[in-house]
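User:
I would dearly like some help making sense of a protein record. Take your time, and here it is.
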Amino acid sequence: MELLLHIGTEKTGSSFIQTSLAVNRDELLSNGIWYPTAGVREQDMLAGRISPGNALPLYQALRDGNLEQAEAVLKTFHQAATERGVKAILLSNENLIEPLSDVRVFETFGHLLSAIDLQLKSVLLVLRDPVEQALSLYKHRAKNGGIPRLDDWLQGGFKLGEHLLAFQSVMEASVTNVQVKRYTKDSSRILSFFYSEWLGLEVPANIQHKEVNPSLTLSELELLNKIHEENPVLAQSFYKAMLEVPVQDKSRDEYLAAHVRETIANELAAKASIWEYYNCLLSSTDQLQIPQVVAEVDAVKERYSFSEIQLNTIAQFMHVSTTRAAMIRRSTEWMKRIYGRLRSSWGGKQKS
């Protein structure tokens, strides 16, 4: 039996792809491909929400070096596929590139597959213009507040370049068929390269695309971070309030966005050769934009902007957050957090 593996990367439409797979599971089955369910996250996939795909348990086992658990997960998938009489299993998780970029883990993974009569037929890797990918991921990480400053995050929190560099060695040492595709915001193009070009199937008709990773503007995120420093619970309420403001009613944030892109480009330019390598695996019409050094990042651009509607929303949020009911809700949330930490700490002591 063959295994088809979609390994991400982050911010390349993975949740959209996973939803399309879950919704069209029966159609895939009729074509001899079993897309296993995702356990407790199955409803997220079916509803079009953010999803880790159906290979989250496999990713966690490989990440933790728990080979026994990884084998158990694969056996469960294999048994379900065997019962359905299919020729291939399709697994998806956008973080799988992290453990599988280690040559030793990749080789061990191959041995686990062989032990249960599975053959890794093809791996799909989806990449995005590096500056835009870093910016999108930073905004996603920052949505709960408490994220490091951009410079610090780029140096210590954005690991994709390292994973891609290591994955080069995996591709060069392995005979596995690895297909590399370039992310686009055009959902029809995503479906085309996933179904038609990778799986060799017709694109399913039952597809609905919607935004599953809404984010705030950079100025809103900076304010969110400041609020989080003072009150994490209040920061959650602020995030929800600003999400309610339609994108078209927000400031375009041009100055700050330009400043952030220049900062990211300067940091990633030193690793440009990584993305140049992957460009060799992409078609001439799908080349990634390689980050270039900006001679001097314009500090004047590091300024924040809000539309009148945003400012009104912020003012209303400040008013509501001072009401008695809001204070009680925040106190309740604080107590829940403290209780959760105490319970977790006590559980850890009990186990030890």
